[in-house]
## 1
Amino acid sequence: MSPKETPGQQGLSEHYRRLFYKHASVEKENERYMTEDDFLSAIAPGEDFKKIQREQFGLLYKVADNSKKGLVSFQDFVIFQNLLSKPDAEYEIAFRLFDVNGSGKVTFDQFKNVLSSNMPKDAVAFDFDCDWLKLYIGKKEGHHELSYEEFSQLLKGLQGERLRQEFKHYDKEQSGYIEPEQFQRIILDIAKHKLSDHVIDHLPTLCNLYAGGGNKITFSNVVAFHNVIRNIDMVELVIKRAIDDSPTKKITKADFLNHAAQVSRYTVFTPMEADVIFHFAGVDGASGTLSIEDFGKILDPRWTHPEPEPAVPVVDAEATKQKSGVLFEIIENAYAFVLGSIAGAVGATAVYPIDLVKTRMQNQRSKVVGELLYKNSLDCFQKVVKNEGFAGLYRGLGPQLVGVAPEKAIKLTVNDFVRSKLANKETGELRFYQEMIAGGAAGASQVVFTNPLEIVKIRLQIQGEQAKNSGAPRRSAIWIVKHLGIVGLYKGASACLLRDVPFSAIYFPAYAHLKRDMFKEGPDHKLTISELLMAGAIAGMPAAYFTTPADVIKTRLQVEARSGQTSYNGITDAARKIMKEEGFKAFFKGGPARIFRSSPQFGVTLTVYEILHQAFPLPGHGPTTSSTASKSGAGQEVGFGPLRSRNALKMLLDLDYRFGVYKVPQQLPGTKA
């Protein structure tokens, strides 16, 4: 951070950088640039380009392209974003578009050429020789050039002059009346972008504003409607205050005018303007007493804030410094370790009976006489309960709970670490294959804990059926550990790697993308418990099933073979013998049970983990996010949204709702190159 750059400015700069490099697709001489499509994706995410067309947002691209080379650099992008943040952005955007030469002045020729070339061909031609324009720039010969401030004032009054000229154009007989269809055309030309669909549909009904008016609309009616639209923010303020003060939460025209007089020093709305408001809000009914829902029909949500825009993150340098110490890191890691341990224990306990059934099914050797104890997973479950009692379903749970804490902790930690190292330095994004690498690394690291845990757990789980068949004594977990020794505890480690690496490589990216793409997780959408549970469970299904063959081989290698059973000498030998003796289907024994175990286990574990983070936040710590949150998509990119970009176009759209659909010539007549 430069000496003069504040923490807030540093946060903005970093945000602009991430947003730019996320969308910039052109690289020249080791520099990245935005095309027009890139630029629009960055400044108008989610825009449907219906009321405001894509070409009109393209006007902003012309303003941002300072070099006029057809590409926007990072510096151009930062300057443009700074321009959008100004309170008078809509005026300055318009001024820069009309100031073709960048001289800081707008001439009569520039004003005429830019306005004419951006207006639709079927629009009512603007009379550039009118007295109104001469008041601003003098006579056509010897006119003076307009500064930014003067041009802004002209622009504010230009819509009213267009309205007057269009009314005069349609009232050829100067009767003071026009047809409803002509009124609709005038209003759509200058204000369609500000109108709700309800108002647009009912524009011709203005002729019914007063009884006896016939099927005609007066100039007074047109001006009254235009004033209402221009002052719609004040309309909304008065309506909300009046309704808040009303016991019935409904108001009349008298209530509206009374409150309008209270909020302003001078009269804001005329009686006719109040009539216009109540006419369009209550066009479907004639009660004269309206609620906030009725008035909502005249307010276009595109120009309001239905939800606050996500704030640009501001870096608090002092707080960051305090949280970067060794002690804080130790506390933070211990906090995550404890929560991960609890979540892992809850997840393991919830599905342990299914895991026991899966292990028994995988160890069943179909070529051994009398060995087929179980017909299927359900039969296995029923026989375990019948022969060993309900407690038999939880045989070997102790070692599982002891090992699951470090297993989950190291898996999540390594996944986060590798993701941070592989992420794009500019944008923080990850490609899908990088997400898989991070997940695979996490799966490999956990084998240090999972292999000893698995071999002890499996031997305890098998003891029940061994005791029933051969009368073998039951052994404790401690006895098994002493009997196997350090080397024996890692028997089948290669098979464990063969299972855990692809499992995590599939699971972590799938979970992150399900949250982002299916459940739309983002800064403005926090997932519910059911959504988190579903994301975790769905991601676990393919990860569990496609790694079942490796799990079968691992189980066979880790179970102590009994008399008459085939013994195996490594992964290749086990795979060959299983294929030869039992067929291909044997590799997917316990597959359904594995899905029913792994899928809900990970769903429960990660859901509990996130719930614990919310229920027991670390004191003095900011909002936490799941370690599996995806950084690879737009859903996680905090953006400004299209609201600021739409607002920047307000003054141009006031000239005509189709302004900008036609291209501005590269070289305008009467201007210097």
## 2
Amino acid sequence: MAPYSILVSWMQKALVVRQYHVASVLCQCAKVAMSHFYIHYDLLEKNINVKTVYGYLDDSANQEFKWGKTYLHLQPDCVAMQDATAQMAMLQFISSELLKVAVPSTVHCDHLIEAQAGGEKDQCQAKDINPEVYNFLATAGAKYGVSFWRPGSGIIYQIILENYAYPGVLLIGADSHTPNGGGLGGICIGVGVADAVDIMAGIPWELKCPKVTGVKLTGSLSGWTSPKDVILKVAGILTVKSGTGAIMEYHRPGVDSISCTDVATICNMSAEIGATTSVFPFNHRMKNLAEEFKDHLVPDPGCQYDQVIEINLNELLKPHINEPFTLYLAHPVAEVGTVAKKEGCCTNSSYEDMGDVGGNVLVNACGPCIGQWDRKDIKKGEKNIIVTCYNRNFTEIVTALAISGTQPRSKDDKKFKLEDTYQHPPKDSSGQRVDMSPTSQHLQLLEPFDKWDGKDLEDLQILIKVKGKCTTDHISALKFCGHLVNINNLLIGATNTENDKANSVRNAVTQEFGSVPDTAHYYKKHGIRWVVIGDENYGEALEPRHLGGRAIITKSFARIHETNLKKQGLLPLTFADPSDYNKIHPVDKLTIQGLKDSALGKPQKCVIRHPNRTILLNHAFNETQIEGFHTGSALNRMKELQQ
């Protein structure tokens, strides 16, 4: 009995353990050449019927299944990256000395465009500011077999939906909103750079065996109720804690009333509650070759879920607008002004909620959604409301609608051609050169980090004890994200518990307060190893490792960033008792013991030894992640695998 969701990977053993027959959605047999869409559904059906080779599992015969504990080893169909994550991903891949990516991979230029004056002007400005990065990504793509979508192509997850998603694909994206591809019944999962590089290098992708939350939809959407309101309802029920580590599977009868783009919106926004991904079953809106095999792309009757939510779409849901960073804090449209005055929050929504209010249509990019604003119309600090539709509709869509009715013409009455922003990698790249200056201030080739000496970590200085949320918005900006030395924005938005200030920490040696990056640089220069104490849903990897960090100890991690930490040789540890967070003070020095046994695959526990107290910690390393910690980074591990 299988929820359509998901992980076909689970196959044979999952049958015995949980009654999942494992829906075919993740079958490796659904081989597809990106841009060609040749899908072997017949082989997919054969594998399901004989119940032998279960799809994307790298080694189904020896795969262990313990939900929420063991790791699945999978072979995805393809990888997608945006221009911010792609910089470090391509630099790591280059350092591996491999000749070509092992799976179809794409780069999409959408993150480095800053929203300021409007679409055309902002796009031109981005090209003027970032030519070095764009040229690097284009030439590296041509060299290593990666497709390249130039600035102006559109947002990564919409391009995936329109060009690469199909029922049953397992698509991995180095962008948290990759689940948008679920609009066409795909299993599209956001990952960190380290995971993306592993897949590109042909290394099986590791995913902690997820639980499945079923969302039963009844009735149908009507009136001003939008798909956004559905996911806001789900988010209000679950919150991030309940959503993390689960796959959200929406099922009938209500799903048949929701369009592809609306389904994509729900899947996209599900990422905000920590879900691994979201998926909808095959329906009449996905008709293509998949229709013949649709019985394998829906849940089995009577299938079992770890949790079930039921939402009646006929019951009027009031249109809501949600706050930034926190999806489950949503407000009825009528209350937004009052909330903004009280809390100083900004909000986002869709075209449906805004109506025709003369909004400025900005460039097709992720700018406003990720904080890339440069507004000139208000003074800094002045309270205001930003209501954006990022990104539910595109200028391309409007153009397509115009074309469907009549052939557009330019001012001189000549037919025009839409700009071609796609670059396919050449068949022969032997003579291709990667455009990257050795003196670049934006890009820097990587060197492996130092390896672990096999000993416990003693006398670790606390760099910062973070208070409250510490998402990617609080950790890293986009400037210099391909240059570890110059990025210099480590935890600059995180609040320090010692003084309730952002980017202000005490230097334990000089006793002076300074920025987080400057203090970390000081510690690195003087050989002082350090640790970060985090709160809930924390993450970050490369810069802390580069600046001498050895461990991150938190109440909980974001899934993507926990994996990044492991693969770059940092210890992601959680408090066995979350209240122990309160026992640690910013001026403390910590010793972490028990690492040797843990790294040998023995107890999954280690401890902080501290005067007057011992604090128990958890970690969840598997064999290959332990190897990554031994070698110091994913880069070292890839080099050793090649040897």
## 3
Amino acid sequence: MKNLGNSCYMNAALQALSNCPPLTQFFLECGGLVRTDKKPALCKSYQKLVSEVWHKRRPSYVVPTSLSHGIKLVNPMFRGYAQQDTQEFLRCLMDQLHEELKEPAVAAVATLTEARDSDSSDTDEKREGDRSPSEDEFLSCDSSSDRGEGDGQGLHGSGSSQGETELLIADEAGRAISEKERMKDRKFSWGQQRTNSEQVDEDADVDTAMAALDNRPPETQPPSPRSTSPCRTPEPDNDAPIRGSARPCSPGHLQEGHAKLSSSPARASPVRIGPPYVLKKAQVLSSGGRRRKEQRYRSVISDIFDGSVLSLVQCLTCDRVSTTVETFQDLSLPIPGKEDLAKLHIYQNVPAKPGACGDSYAPQGWLAFIVEYIRRFVVSCTPSWFWGPVVTLEDCLAAFFAADELKGDNMYSCERCKKLRNGVKYCKVLRLPEILCIHLKRFRHEVMYSFKISSHVSFPLEGLDLRPFLAKECMSQITTYDLLSVICHHGTAGSGHYIAYCQNVINGQWYEFDDQYVTEVHETVVQNAEAYVLFYRKSSEEAVRERQQVVSLAAMREPSLLRFYVSREWLNKFNTFAEPGPITNHTFLCSHGGIPPNKYHYIDDLVVILPQNVWEHLYNRFGGGPAVNHLYVCSVCQVEIEALAKRRRVEIDTFIKLNKAFQAEESPSVIYCISMQWFREWEAFVKGKDNEPPGPIDNSRIVQVRGGGHLQLRQGADYGQISEETWVYLSSLYGGGPETAIRQSVAPPPDPGSLHGEQKIEAETRAV
């Protein structure tokens, strides 16, 4: 990819993502689902870019102009030619892709999740209401003193045998399974919600609380936890992170990072939904405090990259336990220093104190760039025992998931004690993502200067095992990962350059991507790289054998009386996921079992035809469904769509008529106030921008209660003025309140005759 001017942060990230098989295969094989009416249609730009990169007749390099322009429209931070943070670019890109590709989660899945949660709940539970999505997105599981996060780009690749099998399935299944699918050139592309966290506070004793989370081997038990702060909502940093750039580079600032669990920038976006799971002592809460039911969404981004963590905080005074389920897209791991590393090895997983990584931090100056390369050369020529123990990725994970002691300045605010108390916090993985993104905290920002942790972190190319960090409630069966890609930052905290190492899915070879220069490298070069962002993919030999068996069944071409339609999106999961989950045909079916009228004209892009023997094998192996032998337009949905369109037309026409009459009044006796927040939701509904009607009218935000229960309009409130007739009409449809009116009490003018008589009497009195 051509460098557009300090855009190496973008090029390295895009190369890493373009080598992600689950995502790229989605953009190739499921083009019918890459549809959006949201600007700037970044998913279309990304699909075009990756298609060019992986086309058989691709040019020597491609220019990502369209995608660069789109990301700058989404986030002004990336405008201009200043150096930027590749990790923030990744988050912004995936978040926007999710927003454009998201679809409402299947109602059956959501109902199943709620039912399971309800069955596993205890009678003595104390439930709290959901927080807003914007608050949930900032949930943290980190220490407040762990501040620095650096730029990073992620690379990704896959093993040769697994990659060849996937391509074989894609080609053979395309010929033998689908009768409507045309042969295309092999292309790859990929795309991406922000974060849902739900909390339950329960009364439990110490043993029950520890048993709920503790699932690691005895040698990893921490005898003395470190000091950190409880899960909380960190404030966003106003300074944009700038950690690396393409050649040439200029110094920049670093962003403060409070969170172990990385999430997208705050915004009021809907919540993603993941696979259902059962929590015995930690329940996902139903939305009780909201008047309008919160819609859950999913996308290919959330399916691939979303995982969840179970965090438990216990008060050491009253033994009250607070449990939180947090969704993450990447894990931001600390790099322990020598002293902390010794504690991890000697005392079995005593967590490293944030901000105290020994001599790993070194101040960066104008000469540091040259010194860094000299240091790396010396290190490479010196035996490893001279520098002490090597930091491994497992050490970073152990430091991340170690127990935290909450004391001193980081005491826990206990809801039962109603005061600050000493506490202990534990954190375990509840659900593993298909692609695990790991971000190493190599950068630390102070007021006057910045640091970069240059310690080499050893990471495995294959067989990263996360079993020691799983909660007992974890539903994931596959816990080992293989490296796909790694993003490296060369330079200092003030300036540098990004490159990416990716494994090609076709031949299994590793390549170095340095803007428009691509070089084949040996895997030892990758292992010695100074990793900043790593992409790992679930590995499963059983999944590879399963795909080979399906290819064999499809090649048999057995005659069958019935043909079955299966979701192309799920078939892509089967070809690329280690755990594809049950068959989900709801991507092209409505709740009544037919085809939604708005999807029927491109239904061929959404389904693949399977012979009976292949369908029976997949159904017996994965379950799900429903089975589909005939495609038809749903008449019920058609009637509902027509009724909804009529309702919208009637409501908006009536409002326009009443509002026009209101505007014609010169001096209305009463003016009603309505919350603009609710009005904007109603307007989006009647204009067809939102399929869900708004809830009851909520004027609570624009009024305040005075003495005696009197309601008064809040100063500076966001409200609109409507007539009494308009208020009665909307209130009759949606209900709600409270009724807020501004009444004009104008005193009638005095009678001129009586005024003249009073003046005459007054004059006569004065004369007397």
## 4
Amino acid sequence: MGTVAVAAALGFLLLTAAGGSAGDEAREAAAVRELLVRLLGPGPAAAFSVSVERALAAESGLDTYRLSGGGVGARVRVLGSTGVAAAAGLHRYLRDFCGCHVAWSGSQLRLPQPLPVVPEELTEATPNRYRYYQNVCTQSYSFVWWDWARWEQEIDWMALNGINLALAWSGQEAIWQQVYLALGLTQTEIDEYFTGPAFLAWGRMGNLHTWSGPLPPSWHLKQVYLQHRILDRMRSFGMIPVLPAFAGHVPKALTRVFPQANITQMGRWGHFNCSYSCSFLLAPEDPLFPVVGSLFLRELTKEFGTDHIYGADTFNEMQPPSSEPSYLAAATAAVYQAMIAVDPDAVWLLQGWLFQHQPEFWGPTQVGAVLGAVPRGRLLVLDLFAESQPVYVRTASFQGQPFIWCMLHNFGGNHGLFGALESVNRGPTAARLFPNSTMVGTGMTPEGIGQNEVVYALMAELGWRKGPVADLGAWVTGFAARRYGVSHGDAEAAWRLLLRSVYNCSGEGCSGHNRSPLVRRPSLEMVTDVWYNRSDVLEAWRMLLTAAPTLASSPAFCYDLVDVTRQAVQELVSWYYEEVRTAYLNKELVPLMRAGGVLAYELLPALDKVLASDSHFLLGSWLEQARVAAVSETEARFYEQNSRYQLTLWGPEGNILDYANRQLAGLVADYYAPRWRLFTETLVESLVQGIPFQQHQFDKNAFQLEQTFVLSTKSTAPWTAPWCSSLAVPPALAYTWPCAWRPTHPRASKCTPR
């Protein structure tokens, strides 16, 4: 066995030891039984017997479940080596034997009676140690305003999908506040340092400070309370929560208290100036580094306990002060040493995004300096974007350090049908078979959730498969049938069309970041190219409309119909934008007014109405979560403004404009549509007056609209009745399909002339 292989084996042993047991067998079994009651109700739950026995995994040491029983008068028996394994086994039974479906947008849980028999005792072991979940950014793009009820739902979803390793980063600012006060900072200095709630992810990674803050005292109290409940529930299933650790970033005010400290100011991040970025990094050799790091971890673990795995990211999207291997090794070692000073069993979970994001800086020597500075097996690397740009391939499997093959998939919480399902399907197996592979798990690391559920259903299933799904077409057909609770030819055909189009992105250019003209500040230079045939999306839309009379009672179907309609409108906006641009460049006023009028005054208002028919697509739902998290009206307005900034300007001057774009009723009507009206009117005025279009001036005018939206306190449109039950396609959608794309749906008897 080669050196790398030996190191890999050692890493596996150390990680297995670090994982340990987060709770005894009885507690974990009880947690799964309670989940079952929440999921199905006490009556149906009584038909299941759940138990946990570590001995089930004695041979492999990997999470294992066993299913048996069922039938008339017999209980279904679910046995797991951990609570998570038992929950995953339960999910397998509900999915494969009962045809049920568990999802963010609504679960389909109609159980057949009697419960199906497991014909032969079914035992399944996961091929790897870990199934990981979350990105640091998910905490801000999706979780920021959650209460315990929503967290409870998510942890149940995690357990059912076999997740056994996940971030638990709530409440850390309260601990940092204690640490900073103990170090001599004033409360004012601390308040000036923390970002607002919607931007904490980037404060935690050292990218930002101050922006959209300060944090109210009530925020700290509620987050500590939440963190205790989150940790208690995760541990009750046998999950391993990943706590935060000190990465080296400190407030500027620390230089007042310790003027001799060796602190370096970093460069700008994300088009922010140094008022909000240019963070301060404590030098690894400074005596203060272990003091700050150990003080934080000691206070954190005193408050929340520990499961010995900690996350820290020193150079996330920030170039280190030096490329010298000695510096990079020292900076890495300092973080790790501060961990083990408090917890000798500490394992460091590192997001490998830095190696992917700046490959020109992170050459083999620099990567090796970081990976070699921590004992093998004590650094667990997330290959964060492996479905598109795997790093393990060019780093010899992270030079012997264990890694988790992760699917990032989504950026900014964007809406937009997208996936690279073929790559996702085959990627984990390829990584596992890579020469001297040190892969120890699979992971889902989206920046935002609540979208493209088919992608996450596949990825979660792959965490328990030893190889790829043999036939993705058949798999997605089964997915549709389970999701809607019934097999329907048109709906299943629609999903196969989506599989071969929007969910079939391939290559390094694949990114789940929506850059459609619909959600971008308009210009004459926007790119509308896509990797798929747009007619497939429109045909899938037609098929779902055809299926609607049969499937309208399914909440998941109604959600999908709205989502595919949204995507179809997005395609139409691109088409009409091209018409607008062509007409303007050809100086054709009438075609410009016609195409621009359809886009801004018909398509977008119609889209807003469709989105308003599903509570998952309401701006009001997102803003109400923020307001409910507050304890006063002043706080509620502050939180709402945080939310509005994140979805739009992402900074005081549109610093990361529209990065976190979403297509929500209210956002379309009050943010995107006014920009498009302004753009169309500006182009018309340019032709009428014979004055060239000035993008710079338009951007200034658009910024005024964008800022007005952010500062608004206007209440948004309420939820309306589910659109799919009425089958009334808005006229603006039925009659604005371009002739070349028009489906044969009977409502589309007309089309706009080209």
